[in-house]
Specification:
Length: 105
């Protein structure tokens, strides 16, 4: 379960607004399941993913289509992009993005 203190640390005004949580399990290639918890607030959004026993927290980013989550970084990081029931986990480097997992909810 996501702790409110984590949300408050990532989005300082999160305590003032009641966050909305949505849990979704994605079924991905190679038989991988990815539980995702979306946290939506007026100030922004984030997603917490569990991939291979590892927790990945990403914040909402601007997207032309669907919903995109990443981490502000000039280096390497994950990107989670969803549209409808489809989702893709990418590994992002300064050279570009490489898909790691393709999933359906």
């Amino acid at each position: 379960m996501i702790r409110l203190s984590l949300i408050a640390a990532l989005l300082p005004s999160a305590v003032a607004a009641a966050p909305e949580f949505q849990a979704v399990t994605y079924f991905c290639d190679r038989g991988v399941q990815v539980p995702a918890t979306y946290v939506n607030m007026p100030e922004g959004s984030l997603v917490v993913l569990m991939v291979d026993g590892r927790q990945i927290t990403l914040v909402g980013e601007e997207a032309a289509s669907g919903a995109r989550y990443g981490w502000p970084s000039d280096g390497s990081t994950y990107v989670w992009w969803t549209k409808g029931q489809e989702a893709t986990l990418y590994w992002k480097t300064p050279e570009g993005e490489t898909p790691i997992l393709t999933c359906l909810s």
